[in-house]
Fold:
Amino acid sequence: MTVCDRGHPPLCDSTLTNISIIDVNDNRPQFTDTSYEATVQEDAIVGQSVLTLAAVDSDIGLNARLEYHLLAEGHFKVNRTSGQLEVARPLDFEESALYTIDVMVTDCGHYPLSQHTTVVIYILDVNDNSPIIQLHLEVTADRLTEKNFFK
Structure:
């Protein structure tokens, strides 16, 4: 920066000046997809990855650092920093063939901003139940004969 007075002759002086611009948390995080869907087999092991959520924030520093959260606990969990959605408890197609999960991404600014989305997970059935045979016999006395019953 150079400063000069209005004298004759003008006197001037110069110095180096650093200007730091501090980011204001003025941008809300945005999920990169408008909706998320996935399928997972009912015999998936606990910890198996289902999908990875992704979001971006146009701020910088802490204002752009993102954390993912599930709004309710259940059969799935999310890695707070990576956005990886994983199986948290054993699944059973016969119990539920579909899960709808509300997810939130939040930035780490002093006044955090957030966005929500919904993830739909379809459970694929696996042949894990043995067949059950149920017989209902009705025997009446007039149909019982040695000829057709005791062969």
Observations:
- The mean pLDDT is 90.
- Residues 94 and 130 are 13 Å apart (CA to CA).
- Helices lie at 146-149.
